[in-house]
Amino acid sequence: DKIPFYFADPHAPWQRGTNENINRLLREYFPKADDLTGYSKDYINTCIEKLNKRPRKCVGWKTPYELFFGKVLRLI
Questions:
Q1: For the segment 32-68, what is each residue's pLDDT rounded down to a tens digit?
Q2: Residue 66's CB: how many other CB atoms inside 10 A?
Q3: Domain parsing of the chain, residue ranges
Q4: Selection from 5, 30, 8, 29 nearest residue 19 by Cα
Q5: Residue 74 pLDDT > 80, yes or no?
Q6: How many other C-beta atoms are found inside a 10 Å radius of the C-beta of residue 25?
Q7: Which residues does 36 contact at the CB level (< 8 Å), separation at least 6?
Q8: Residue 30 CB partners (closer than 8 Å, separation 6+)
Q9: Beta-carbon contacts of residue 60 (< 8 Å; ≥ 6 apart)
């Protein structure tokens, strides 16, 4: 019944590697100081789609899209 969980220490980004990597990827589309209300919904959806279809090393080079929907995007 009990599920173990983990809280990273404050100011310790090395303990949240995957999270920090995703933040870095987001910064390619949305600079840190930018207000997101200045972006169109279409642009945000395009960025989300690109990120969700980008292979990730931490999941065996599969994409988040492939893992969530169970569909293979690559022919290799």
A1: 999 999 999 999 999 999 999 999 888 889 999 999 9
A2: 19
A3: 13-69
A4: 8
A5: no
A6: 14
A7: 30, 44
A8: 36, 39, 47
A9: none
CA 76 centroid distance within chain: 23
3-state secondary structure of 62: strand
Residue 59 has a pLDDT of 87
Q: How far apart are CA 49 and CA 73, in angstroms?
A: 13
CB atoms within 10 A of CB 63: 19
pTM: 0.71
Q: Please enumerate in sequence order all residues whose Cβ is within 8 A of that of 56, keeping only pairs 6 or more positions apart, or say none.
A: 62, 63, 64
**Residue 53 structure tokens:** 């279809």
Contact 16, 25 (CB under 8 A): no
